[in-house]
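Today's session is about reading a structure prediction critically. Students often jump straight to the picture, but the first step is always the sequence itself: look for stretches that repeat, for charged clusters, for runs of hydrophobic residues. Only then move on to the predicted structure, which in these notes is written as discrete structure tokens rather than atom positions. Here is the chain we will use throughout the hour.
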Amino acid sequence: MEMRDLLMEQTVKKISFETDTKVNQLDPKPKITVFNTPVLWFGLFAAITLVSMYTGNLPGGMIGSLLVMIVLGEVFGWIGDRTPIMKTFLGGGAILAIFGSAYMVYSGLLPESITTSVTDFMQTGGFLDFYIAALITGSILGMNSKILVKVGLRYFLPIFGAVIGAIILAGIIGSLVGFTLQDAILVITLPIMGGGMGAGAVPMSQIYSEMLGNEPSYYISMLVPALALGNVFAIVLASVLDMVGKKFPSLSGDGQLVKGFKYEKPQQKYDIKKMGVGLLAALAFFTLGNLLGAFIPLHPYAIMIILIALMKVANIIPPIVLDGASQWYQFVASNWTFALLFGIGVAYTDLNTVIEALTLQYILTVFGVVLGAIIGAGLLGKLVGFYPIEAAITAGLCMANMGGTGDVAVLSAAKRMELMPFAQISSRLGGALILLLSGLIIPLLV
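Below is the predicted structure for this chain, in token form.
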């Protein structure tokens, strides 16, 4: 009896092994994937996209724009994340997706109709706002409320540290290479540390025009090169800070800002219906921020952050909305980041502007601004109990980049997308601080 049972058990194991082998032969796991898709199938999808694009048969609106952004963004991202020097020192896929697409526009490789379509989709179509709304809502609501309470107003100290460090180092380097203190601070430092184009350079040009004379367009042409080049250094140095954090783990929270507070992310069971709730919450909170922005003199993103954080700390949002917002944010960040970065390159990055600014003196001074922001934010961040790497990335580099677009690129290069709420505080509230400072500093320098 025992012998028969043993023979049956061996026969079952043999059948099971042969079955598993056949299944593996029929459905082998792909060795190379792009966008989690077998490379041959992704190549097929890419071929369909390119043929449609260059024959003028790409669908208009959201479908065609998003298809191009996903396919080409993922190609650039895949290459950048696997190219040795680029992935180590230059921000990897994040920077290649931005400047690869910007080069396609600059060189004419991207048809003008596609450039127009993608630009409209990013700007008037609101894809950038759609993406950031998901990130702000989901990252805050998915965060431990104790972290929000623990961070509190202390976060503004490293922001001040970043501004002070940037002004001091830029002033020193600028003076050494031949810039006046006025040019080093007003023309280079302040626009870099502002809130990007819409919330920084544009209103700053109005302030300069009112206080110094000349048309706002004159100052825009002076401010934009600093903004663009500073954004490049911010992305590159974000990747460097990630490497420093890995080499010196005591300086890094590995994506957690607050020192001495270990938060283990709970395991979630992903639910498609909950993601729908998260989508609704992101759209509603974004709309509320815009509604209140008509009456409150703050950027809608800043209002949105404050409201969501207060509701999270007050514990008045039901669990299904918290889970849904967190899951929707993770879906968006996992699937559309390279697509968004490609769109940023097309719609917001002008290579002509960057190239014209590439004199050695200018580059050194801009580098001094970004490095000073890192040092100031890291030191004062450590003083108030933050991890220096995370403080330098959020309060430093996210002050020195191009606002919301730069936040995505910097955090992607640093591999710390979960820090988006703090990045947005830097870009929006910090940007408003720079506009205030510019009005106070101009009379002292002219």
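Discussion point for the tutorial: The chain has a mean pLDDT of 84.
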